[in-house]
Amino acid sequence: MSRSAVMSDCQKARRDVLTHAKRVVIKVGSAVLTGSNGLDLRVVNRLADQMAGLHDKGIDLVLVSSGAVAAGCRVMGSCHARQDLAYKQATSAIGQSRLMHFYDEAFARYDTVTAQVLLTRADLQDRERFLNARNTLSMLLGWRVIPIVNENDTVAVHELKFGDNDALAALILNAVEADLFINLTSADGVFTDNPLENPDACFLPYIEDIASMPLANICRGKTGSGTGGMYSKLLAARRAAQLGVPTLILSGKTRFGLEKVFAGEELGTWIMPEARSISRRKFWMAYNLDPGGTIVIDQGAVCALTDHGKSLLPAGIADVQGDFGMGDMVRIEDVSGRSIGVGVTNYTAEELRRIKGRNTSEIETILGHASYPETIHRDNMLLDAAI
């Protein structure tokens, strides 16, 4: 297919989604919300103006918003937040209620109700708590309330942080079954290189196959006030694509940018979803759980998994790294260290070290039990995971 034909297909897909989208997750970062004096209330009000207009058209909206730390710095007279955890948690504690107050007042001008939803990774890693969060969000959207989601920085620890709100927003897509992900950033969209460092960097209006893009090569640097940068935005977009959700990376600094986009202007970078989406259960498994170790597999097992859709058997295991238990998430790599995917293991690391390279028929003789014939069942595995 010619490049012009691909572009035409992408343009049509974009128009169709923007015309028919019923549920949209919008993420706004600190680089958009902050100015020289910390949180910029003019930006908050402009964002609320545009979202209220979309909401009035019947679109369900979820806002994933940074800015609590910036709001806290604004109150304390300093926007030079240190990186140590206690400082950020304290400023977040001061700023979170004020950030919500600003949003409440901005949306109240349109008789639109907002709700604060604070989450930690532990809330979404536990399946029951994840379902509770999903049900709460569903109820709020059914009431035509706009949930405003943020990480609960005040209680989160490094080991249980999402890392940035781009990662959190991608997980929210799954929880609310969104049709579209809009990521508001300080850049005009995605470029072939960092335009601040390379004046020859080319703007990308469409990305057809994000899985094939060398993200680390084109995403150098991050904003001074944010925690992610373009790499984390594209990683979130790649996860969204696997879920079958398109992403629009759009400048949050452009006046009336959201209104213009839904009116048909081709602003920002549109990232196409994959043709075959993964199940929401697999998405939750792959991106809510942390890998506890690594299973290294030989080339025969790689082919069985990637070319034939098979489960992973002990015979294909070349090495076992880490100390994980039965039911834990693990990385799957080939002998060169290339990532193959992730999956939930049926055996502990110690057991796998004893049965690696052996036939399934030998498991019971070696371990004294053979609870499962496979190490990782294909239903509990996601290949090419965006980890």
Structure explained in plain terms:
With 387 residues, the chain is α/β, with parallel strands linked by helices. It has helices at residues 3-20, 30-33, 41-56, 68-76, 85-108, 121-125, 127-142, 165-176, 215-218, 230-242, 257-262, 280-288, 299-308, 349-355, 363-367; strands at 23-28, 34-35, 38-39, 60-65, 114-119, 146-151, 180-185, 190-191, 203-204, 206-207, 247-251, 269-271, 293-297, 317-322, 329-334, 339-344, 381-383. Strand 15 (329-334) and strand 16 (339-344) form a beta hairpin. The two termini are 31 Å apart. Keywords: Amino-acid biosynthesis, ATP-binding, Cytoplasm, Kinase, Nucleotide-binding, Proline biosynthesis, Transferase. This is Glutamate 5-kinase. Residues 293-377 form the PUA domain.
Helices and strands in order, then pairings?
Elements: H1 3-20, E1 23-28, H2 30-33, E2 34-35, E3 38-39, H3 41-56, E4 60-65, H4 68-76, H5 85-108, E5 114-119, H6 121-125, H7 127-142, E6 146-151, H8 165-176, E7 180-185, E8 190-191, E9 203-204, E10 206-207, H9 215-218, H10 230-242, E11 247-251, H11 257-262, E12 269-271, H12 280-288, E13 293-297, H13 299-308, E14 317-322, E15 329-334, E16 339-344, H14 349-355, H15 363-367, E17 381-383
Parallel strand pairs: 1-4, 1-7, 4-6, 5-6, 7-11, 10-12, 13-15
Antiparallel strand pairs: 2-3, 8-9, 11-12, 13-14, 15-16, 16-17
Helix pairs in contact: 3-5, 4-5, 8-10
